[in-house]
Design goal:
Layout: H1 2-27, H2 30-46, H3 57-103, H4 111-123, H5 127-138, H6 143-150, H7 154-172
Helix pairs in contact: 1-2, 1-3, 2-3, 4-7, 5-7, 6-7
Length: about 180
């Protein structure tokens, strides 16, 4: 055991600075290069039984540092790509907001104009669909009440409301976000 410690200390003192310089050339960050080399030496210590075998220490160290540098660089690449995608999505969202605000027609804020827009959208619904929608959203009736009053099933009321929402969303999309 004592021989392994002395052997390890000698290897550490002999190769640490070379391994750090090697890592630094690829990861371009002093602290990360040092962390990588420390990890390699920690793993070597954990596998210290290798020290008693005929192991090519420089080759082992360079290969281990190389692999850790590759892992670090791959991770950094993924982080950079993800950050770039997030920035692009954020930029697109901001651009949509800008375009939406620039295209906003101030006339739609007048009560009569809003009323006309909604009436036009409601007129685009079939008679049955419009009646169910008005009973639900304007008169405030529950789906069960509407179904009983019109002698239809609650499922039919739900289906018609879904149709109304979809049609109204399409009709009103240019006026309201």
């Amino acid at each position: 055991m004592q021989e392994q410690i002395h052997n390890f200390e000698g290897i550490y003192l002999t190769y640490f600075s070379r391994m750090k310089s090697f890592a630094r050339a690829y990861v371009l960050n002093e602290e990360e290069a040092e962390n990588i080399v420390q990890d390699v030496f920690t793993e070597l210590w954990e596998k210290r039984e290798l020290l008693t075998m005929s192991l090519n220490i420089p080759a082992y160290l360079f290969t281990s540092v190389k692999n850790k540098c590759l892992n670090y660089l791959r991770h950094e690449t993924i982080k950079t790509e993800t950050a770039g995608k997030l920035k692009e999505e954020q930029h697109q969202t901001l651009q949509i907001s800008i375009n939406s605000l620039q295209a906003l027609n101030e006339d739609i804020f007048s009560t009569t104009e809003v009323q006309k827009i909604i009436e036009k959208a409601l007129d685009s619904l079939s008679d049955r669909c419009r009646k169910i929608f008005i009973m639900s959203k304007i008169e405030g009736k529950k789906q069960k009440e509407i179904a009983e009053e019109l002698n239809i099933t609650v499922n039919t009321v739900e289906t018609q409301m879904g149709i109304a929402y979809k049609k109204l969303r399409t009709e009103l999309k240019e006026y309201f976000s």
